[in-house]
Amino acid sequence: MELLERFAAGDVDAFEALFRQYQGEVYRWLMRIVRNTAVAEDLTLETFWRMHRAHARFDPAMGNCGAWLRRIATNAAIDHLRHARREVPLPDDLPATAQQPPAEQLELRREILRAMNKLSPRLRAVVLLALVEEEPYERIAEALGISESAVKVRVFRGVRILRKTLSQAGVHP
Amino acid sequence: MKEPQIDDLKKLLKDTLPPAHGGELQRDLWPAMLQRLDQRTLRVPWWDWALLATVAAALCFFPGIIPALLYHL
User: Fold this and answer.
1) Which residues of B touch A170 (CB under 8 A)?
2) How many C-alpha atoms does A133 have within 13 Å on its Cβ side?
3) DSSP letter, residue A129
4) Is A49–B5 a contact, with Cβ atoms under 8 angstroms apart?
5) How far apart are CA A52 and CA A169, in angstroms?
6) C-alpha distance from A99 to closest chain B C-alpha (Å)
7) How far is residue B32's CA from residue B29's CA, in Å, rounded to a whole number?
8) A86–chain B nearest CA distance, Å
9) Separation of alpha carbons A73 and A75, rounded Å
10) pTM metric for this prediction
11) Per-residue pLDDT reduced to its tens digit, A33-59
């Protein structure tokens, strides 16, 4: 029996094989949205827990387990952003690409994070994926379960809110 | 909104929030997953507790149903 069929039938060994195969991919996808290693690890576990719980609903004929997991992971990340409406932590484990003096750069970053926090979790996820991570719209649409044109509309709306919030803070992109 | 305006904001965002590009997972999460599976499996849903409490209360208040219950078991 194929791995996906065994997983759908509730085989734990098949689940482990899929977990080992996809854990890195799911983690990387989540890091793009939550930008925090500890949260991304926790959400990776939550994603696979949801996958395990929904094994009976998985159709092996669909085949694309990676896309299914990305969809679950995106929903888990959005749930997290919704429940933890706190300041997005500065990504201290990410490389700095500062071209301005550090203090000015830090202040600018703070303003941008503040503006990002004004976005709804769904808009924030789309803005981060589309503008910062430059993920293709098609992939974002698939992960959110919406059409490509809906992604474009959300990017557009997110940019408009960000520009307005940043302008109010004296930052003019 | 024009495309250049989006590009300007994109540049600003990328300059201040460098792309995560995912980063690499530093450890195998399978042991943690197993632990979570065990914890969740052991947890009894609140509905089961409520059902149990209802049955216990019914047996206390109406002991006459015990023989009928035993008969059906």
Assistant:
1) none
2) 25
3) I
4) no
5) 45
6) 8
7) 5
8) 17
9) 5
10) 0.77
11) 998 899 999 999 999 999 999 888 888
